[in-house]
Amino acid sequence: MTRGKQKIEAQRRNEEKNQKSKGSQFEARAVALKVSCPICKAQLANQNQLVDHYASKHPRENPPASSSQ
Questions:
Q1: Conformation bin of residue 35: beta by default, left when phi > 0, alpha when psi is -120 to 50
Q2: For the chain, which terminal residue's Cβ has fewer other Cβ atoms within 10 angstroms, N or C?
């Protein structure tokens, strides 16, 4: 009977371990993305990513100044 109890407890531990975390990835993503491109409205994490975005997606345009948007 000991093995039956161990099996049940192992299943319970696995269920607890495999449960999805509370909350949403969308909420965490929205908090992390603070800067948006004024041309295409793409959301980026910081000013450096905005400069890189301009270089690759809008090469003829100049990136905005480093003021917060």
A1: beta
A2: N
Chain position carrying tokens 């371990």: 17
Residue-wise burial string across 8-38, b where 16 or more C-beta atoms lie within 10 A, e elsewhere: eeeeeeeeeeeeeeeeeeeeeeeeeeebebe
Q: What is the DSSP letter of 40?
A: T
At 66, list the tokens: 């480093």
Its pTM stands at 0.56
* Rounded distance between C-alpha atoms, residue 50 and residue 3, angstroms: 58
Beta-bridged to residue 36, according to DSSP, are: 43
